[in-house]
Amino acid sequence: MLRPPRASDVGALLTALRRNEAHLRPYTPQRPDRGDRRPTLASVARDVTSARRAWRRDDSYTFFLFDREDRRRVLGRVTLGRVIRGPFQNAFLGYWVDVGTQGKGVMTEAVRAVVGYAFDTLALHRVQAGVMPRNAASIRVVEKVGFRSEGLAVRYLQIAGKWEDHVIFALTREEWRR
Q1: Topology of domain 2-177, CATH
Q2: pLDDT per residue over 111-159, tens digit each?
Q3: How far is CA 63 from CA 136, 160, 177, in A?
Q4: Strand partners, 130
Q5: What are residue 133's phi and psi, to 5 degrees?
């Protein structure tokens, strides 16, 4: 189940982030505003509040992925971030999935739904994603959804304290409709 964040999700998200801390660490940007990267109740509450505000401003769209059996258990997140309107009509895709849920097609299904929302509801023209070349599982997700590789961006983002290369993938509305 995918849906936008609610204030009541803070505890469930904190539990999910702590459960997946080691799994997510190699792929997570360090936040300049926080020396300790361990999620806290306060930091997660700020993130949820910020995500809710971003929806209202048309800046970013975060969806939490919940277990169908236990709708209080967060299994991941998919974000259409940094929405740029005007002649670009673009968003940047980001996502993570619970370590115990990997390899089951759940994230592919979630990304496909969010990309459909980007094109059909938000009327975006393009969605792009940057994926570290060593993250084979994440590359499989975007490829299954229909994204095409546009090339390598060298030292693109600082992840876990190191500048990491990323393969840039993109999908346009025209490609999505095909």
Answers
A1: Aminopeptidase (3.40.630)
A2: 999 999 999 999 999 999 999 999 999 999 999 999 999 999 999 999 9
A3: 23, 23, 22
A4: 168
A5: -55, -30
C-alpha separations of 149 from 20, 85, 110, 162, 172 in Å: 28, 23, 20, 23, 12
Q: How far is CA 92 from the centre of its chain?
A: 8
Buried b (16+ CB within 10 A) or exposed e, 34-71: eeeeebeeebbbebbeebeebeeeebbbbbbbbeeeee
The CA distance from 10 to 12, in Å, is: 6
- Amino acid, single-letter form, for residue 7: A
SS3 category, 19: helix
Q: Three-state SS for 113?
A: helix
Which of 12, 78, 70, 73 has its CA nearest to residue 45? 12
The structure's pTM equals 0.92
